[in-house]
Amino acid sequence: MKHLYYTTDLCVVGGGLSGLCCAVAAARHGIKVILVQDRPVLGGNASSEIRMWVCGANGDGNRESGIVEELMLENYYQNPGLKFTLWDSVLYQTAMAEENLTLLLNTTCLDATMQGDRIVSIKAWQSNAETFHEIKATYFADCSGDSILAPLSGAEHTYGREAKGQYDERIPPDVADQKTMGMSCLFQIRETDHPVKFTPPSWAYSYPTDADLPHKSHTKESNFWWIEVGGEWDCIHDTDRCRDELLKICYGVWDHMKNHGDHDVENWEIEWIGFLPGKRESRRYIGKYVVTQNDVEAEGRFDDMVAYAGWTMDDHFPAGFYYKQGHPTIHHPAPTPWGLPLRCMISKNIENLVFAGRNISVSHAALSSSRVMATCAVLGQGLGTAVAQAIKDGCHVENVDIPRLQQTLMEDDCYLPWHTREIPALTKRALCSAEVVRNGQDRLEQNVWIGGAGDSVTYTFAQNEQVREIRLVFDSHLDRPYDNMPCNYPLVQPKYKVPYTLIDAYRIEGESEDGEQFCLEVGENHQRFVKHRVDWRVKTVRFVPLTTHGCEQFRLFAFDVR
Known about the structure:
By secondary structure, the protein is of the alpha+beta class. The chain has 3 domains: 2-161 and 281-411, 3-Layer(bba) Sandwich (FAD/NAD(P)-binding domain); 183-279, no CATH class; 425-561, Sandwich (Jelly Rolls), CATH 2.60.120. It has helices at 17-28, 67-78, 84-96, 149-153, 164-167, 239-259, 293-297, 364-370, 373-393, 402-411, 425-429; strands spanning 2-13, 33-36, 101-104, 107-115, 118-126, 131-142, 157-158, 183-184, 187-191, 228-229, 268-273, 278-279, 284-285, 305-309, 313-316, 329-332, 338-341, 353-355, 431-432, 449-451, 457-474, 503-511, 517-522, 529-548, 554-561. 48% of the residues are buried.
């Protein structure tokens, strides 16, 4: 067997969206990162292995930006047919593009070496390469969902539902239990131009009538999230048992739709079925602070807020598919957005253990809102940025300068509700032809500059100034009504495209006092957040939009120079 040894600033365990965004954010902010993922692809529940939609905060203008929006927009551009294997490639290339990030796929964390209340190193096994990896790090970020480092390190954690009285919450049961929300295997279907027969495997369950599937919408437009079991079992150690049960249900549901009653799927065939269950809940860490239902309902206005949520408190019944009394989940209302603090991502008792994703320090009730993937992604970016700042400043992550961290996140196009991004000093002291592009609010209709053919935005300085960076935030239609990936494949597929509101081509012009001209011309832009490095000494800087991806207006949220 081969053994490899590493020393790094941050080791991230788990390559779902939270782990990927954590690792990428930390690497971009200049620290060395190793990302350990036990699957051959990144993305977790969003990957081709599970294929769940990336959901997040509800409400107008609340879509998550930052790295998760970058990933989605890159996918629309590179993968207009929205093939899941190409989506996997978009996630992979994003990690591989970072020179400070080492990616270890097919690598499972097996053990941790402790020294007091610190993790010194972890050992991981890469099965396809028959290689052991031993990784020493200043910080370990557990973004694995199942909190693999909790039992290995002795970190305080919990599992199941608290009693109502533990945190004075309304949603939990009267008595604590070990029940959770379950896991799902999804399946996807494709339309053809001819009738297709389906013969179920002999071991599939049979559901002859609609009465056998009560309260379960099973139209061809469904993504079949309600095929869910395991909440009354052990959502970690019973994963294979859950998969076996879920496959029997999946094939039985499709058999029902094809062969029992009229479900308008005569020309449809099963395209794909998942053999890796997507999990909603398992171990949760106990952090420096436990976020509860009461915090959710109070909007989570924490001083150390670094991320936000806005999904309902969507609490699935532990019985899942076998819950017969009504709809399989309760959507308890939650404000949107509501904030999440850095403290809920820092271990209570292990000094250098942090975490992001569905395993953060929240009660079961709060988890039912914070667990969805776009929320997990912004948690990951917030944590990775915090760890990078802590390492550079030589302080513990718990003691980072929070206002500076929040400004860094907003500079990176992360939305922090109730906060305003600081405007660079050079931008502030210039005359501007459109004040709205420097108000520190990079979303919502009241904060967008709208131009037409021939319009531009100009900064004018009192004298020549050195400009080294230009920051732009375009309109990526945050209220767009389509998901990141499809749940089925009709014969005539919807045209998922780069949002039509994005500016496609533009020019940035500079001119010095003595008339020297500078120009930066960009085409095929497909991102919301863009930075350009320049080295200009100029009196004026002008942004000139040229074309869009279909919108008649030119729409721009921010234009900063520094």
